[in-house]
Amino acid sequence: MTTSSSAKPTLAVIGGTGAEGSGLVVRWAVVGYPVIIGSRSQEKAASVAAELSAQLPSGSASIRGDENGAAAKAGDVVVLCVPYAAQEGTIAQIVEGCQGKVVVTVGVPLQPPKVSTVWRPAAGSAAEEAQAQLGDGVRVVSAFQNVSAAHLKDLSYTVDCDILVAGDDKAAKAVAIELANAAGMFGIDAGPLANASVAEGLTALLIGVNIRHKIKSSGIRITGIGRAEEQ
Amino acid sequence: MTTSSSAKPTLAVIGGTGAEGSGLVVRWAVVGYPVIIGSRSQEKAASVAAELSAQLPSGSASIRGDENGAAAKAGDVVVLCVPYAAQEGTIAQIVEGCQGKVVVTVGVPLQPPKVSTVWRPAAGSAAEEAQAQLGDGVRVVSAFQNVSAAHLKDLSYTVDCDILVAGDDKAAKAVAIELANAAGMFGIDAGPLANASVAEGLTALLIGVNIRHKIKSSGIRITGIGRAEEQ
């Protein structure tokens, strides 16, 4: 593990074998973030890591795979990118390795088959559930909920979707906003972790937009913030 | 009242004396929708109606004022544009006049002083609360939550914010989408009324964005739907 000496933090992407996760992995590795893909199966994690590495241009950071617990332990920042149904079980595997770190939750609570109707767990959002399960020693931030997995792995594809970053710790939000910007997106401070429910709910709404418009990648953009001058 | 023979439906804008409501009133009247402003006070409604009428170019539709109950009765479509704290009391005044009609709810549940943190009533959204109070004889649609009141009355100002339209009745949603488009915005079917909670919650999020960016009119835009080809 030579990545720990890198200037950029090592990212543990739990669920990085999935469509959304692997798309993010590729976009981060190509700009120099060493990535450890976490999966329930070490073998699967390693195999997807090898597959994604092979697609990257030379000079990209390394991608390796490990089982969830070890991946979380080895990461400086943990990105939790699993389907909502798997969230609780996955967090149980990584809770120890996440202590003291920033954990970015990407998953969206959806209630099949009505995935275009907003649904929220009792805590209000998957992110707040994650925070409760991970405990006060972890700074949870929610982000990347609204980015369609379609085309994400295609580095020539420009993602036309802002990243709403919600969390109760400003420095932790800055980490996620930097990850969004590094991946070629635009990260925006969306307020406290309670506002994660808005970003998560937007995904259900966008799934409905995709269905009605027969497309795969609707997204959202915050207007009026004068980004042309800011960037 | 000569407006009933107009090709366009007469709009009763309950709370049309406020900043958001009066901005919408102006934008609808100028494109030919006769408007009745509703207020608790007939006198205030009439006075604001006269004031707004004076700002309109000739050829605009008429704006008149009445107390809430009478305004709702006289409207073909009712737009409920009152602060959340006043919603229940206002609906009690208009419930009879709304029967059989489309009611568009614009209000957002906010919990001062934390108006940039999402807050939801037990029903999930102000729109669902309105539907429960108005009863099954009324088709409630939520829309216009995310449009900043700032500049809305200035007709030379282009509103850079899409209108998320949530509701359980497709024809009722089409009415609100038409009203959005007529006002120079872009109305989007956002799914069932349950999704109103997302649009309402976005307003809290945007208030926070406004504060952090020191602006007054952040908004949202749905990307990826190929609107250039559609419009």
The secondary structure category of chain A is alpha/beta
The fraction of residues in strands of chain A falls at: 15-25%
Shape of chain A from CA axes? globular
**Spatial order of the strands forming the largest sheet of chain A:** 3-2-1-4-5-6-7-8
In brief:
Chain A contains 8 helices and 9 strands. By secondary structure, the first copy, chain A, is of the alpha/beta class.
Structure in words:
The structure is a homodimer of 231-residue chains. Chain A has 231 residues and is of the alpha/beta class. In chain A, α4 (84-98) runs parallel beside α5. An eight-stranded mixed beta sheet of chain A has the order 3-2-1-4-5-6-7-8, sandwiched between helices. Chain A has eight helices and nine strands. Chain A has helices spanning 19-29, 42-55, 68-74, 84-98, 126-134, 170-182, 196-213, 227-230; strands at 11-14, 35-39, 63-67, 77-80, 102-105, 139-142, 162-167, 186-189, 219-223. Mean pLDDT of chain A is 94; it is low at 1-5. Chain A starts with 10 loop residues before the first strand and ends with a helix. Chain A is globular. Chain A binds chain B through residues 116-118, 148, 160-161, 164, 188-192, 194-195, 197-198, 201-202, 204-206, 208-209, 212-213, 215, 217-226, and chain B through 116-118, 148, 160-161, 164, 188-192, 194-195, 197-198, 201-202, 204-206, 208-209, 212-213, 215, 217-226.
